[in-house]
UniProtKB/TrEMBL annotation:
Family affiliation: In the C-terminal section; belongs to the PPC synthetase family.
Pfam families per the UniProt record, alphabetical: DFP, Flavoprotein
Obligatory cofactor(s): FMN; Mg(2+)
Signal peptide: none
Source organism (scientific name): Microbacterium natoriense
Ligase in keyword set: yes
One Gene Ontology term from the biological process aspect of the record: pantothenate catabolic process
GO annotation, cellular component aspect: phosphopantothenoylcysteine decarboxylase complex
Record region (Phosphopantothenoylcysteine decarboxylase): 1-182
Name by which UniProt lists this protein: Coenzyme A biosynthesis bifunctional protein CoaBC
């Protein structure tokens, strides 16, 4: 696919270098159109080197090929990141006083913008009116996030991270091959309280489950995302009209929410990292050293949520489990797969996604690598890269099983 990335004159322009890299890594052809002000932050040689395409800001270059129109006509998607308040205002008014402006007017492809500006500028009625107008015309908006801004200020207006913009861009290019699928997905890590301050938990950020929800929705599915302690910025890619988000904290809450979502789901994906144990007693007050001694915490085993979903499954309902496994002795992958296959048989899931984890992989990482086991335990697929790319690989395996369960070719 041909993607045009417009870069405007904001400090966040440096982040768009990573955005271009991610889009190219996903297999797309990328042309960068910086404004003159954008080149004050990142120079033209950088854009040419990272995109591997010539870069210009002028409507007077390559006139014979009518470049100021052709770029928009040939684009499958146009992304503007960062999109400053000035550029957003120009887009609303249809002003085309540079190459990016003419490209935006000439394109019939989807347009995605990632706003970036100071909080006061974002909240200004003019900007809010311009955003509403662009949305009414079908322009897609991703962000902004709330956080630290240039000059030490903080508030809404921070451009979301390149990975989030890339996810949103790829979603607009995704095939609509999951139309009609209702899917319940869990994400994040449960927390079992010890006292009002402490809990038993794990390092799961929820990124992989969120990526699955975003990818499934982009491909036409109706999604219920049960998010266990997932931060707001991590949830951003799942902010989609076809995604309903339920927030939970403990394993018991997640189990109840998933059981309710499963009642109307065609497929269930248990990507959340669920605590195996919980404290038998939860202290109403913080446990302190002043009480003396080391507190003994008695644990009880949590209910196996996946097993419960398998027992209650309807005819034709597909269930995908996740197995977060550390490698065996000296990284023996066969040992890891043997453990995963035993878990697949024990749980009774259709697919098992084997996620190798460690101190620096799997949990909290931006990228991931998984092995998907088919119903008979054979390796159906492997997927690696960004968590969105991994999500696509998992859904590619799920799709034929779902269509097969409906008796379709």
């Amino acid at each position: 696919m041909n993607i045009v990335v417009g870069v405007t004159g904001g400090i966040a322009a440096y982040k768009s270098v990573q955005l271009v890299r991610l889009l190219i890594k996903a297999g797309h052809e990328v042309t960068v159109i910086p404004t003159e002000d954008a080149l004050r932050f990142v120079g033209l040689p950088t854009w040419e080197a990272i995109s591997r395409n010539p870069v210009t800001t002028s409507v007077h270059d390559d006139v014979a090929k009518v470049r100021h129109v052709a770029l928009g006509q040939d684009a499958d998607l146009v992304v503007v990141a960062p999109a400053t308040a000035n550029t957003i205002a120009k887009m609303t008014a249809g002003i085309a006083d540079n190459l990016l402006g003419t490209t935006l007017l000439a394109t019939e492809a989807p347009v995605l913008i990632a706003p970036a500006m100071h909080a006061e500028m974002w909240r200004h009625p003019s900007t809010q009116a311009n955003i509403a107008t662009l949305q009414s015309r079908g322009v897609h908006i991703v962000g902004p996030a709330v956080g630290e801004l240039a000059g030490g200020d903080s508030g809404p207006g921070r451009m979301i991270e390149p990975e989030g913009i890339a996810d949103a861009a790829l979603a607009l290019l995704a095939p609509r091959d999951l139309e009609g699928l209702r899917i319940a997905i869990s994400a994040g890590g449960t927390r079992e309280p010890i006292d009002p301050v402490r809990y038993l938990g794990n390092r799961s950020s929820g990124r992989q489950g969120v990526a699955l929800a975003a990818e499934a929705a982009a491909r036409g599915a109706e999604v219920t995302l049960v998010a266990a302690n997932v931060a707001g910025d991590v949830l951003a890619p799942a902010q989609h009209p076809s995604v309903r988000i339920r927030h939970v904290g403990t394993a018991a809450e997640l189990g109840q929410a998933m059981a309710e979502a499963a009642a109307s789901a065609d497929a269930i994906v248990m990507a959340a990292a669920v605590a195996d144990y919980r404290p038998v007693e939860v202290s109403p007050r913080k446990l302190t050293k002043e009480a003396g001694g080391i507190p003994a915490i008695e644990l009880a085993e949590n209910e196996d949520i996946v097993a419960g979903l398998v027992r209650a499954r309807r005819d034709g309902q597909l269930i995908v489990g996740f197995a977060a496994e550390t490698p065996g002795t000296e990284g023996d992958q066969e040992e890891l797969l043997a453990r995963a296959r035993r878990k697949q048989q024990r749980k009774g899931v259709d697919l098992l996604v084997v996620n190798e984890v460690g101190w620096e992989r799997g949990f909290e990482a931006v990228e991931n690598a998984v092995i998907v086991l088919a119903p008979d335990g054979a390796v159906a697929a492997t997927a690696s890269g960004s968590k969105r790319e991994v999500a696509a690989g998992i859904l590619d395996v799920l799709r034929p099983l779902w269509t097969g369960s409906r008796g379709e070719e």
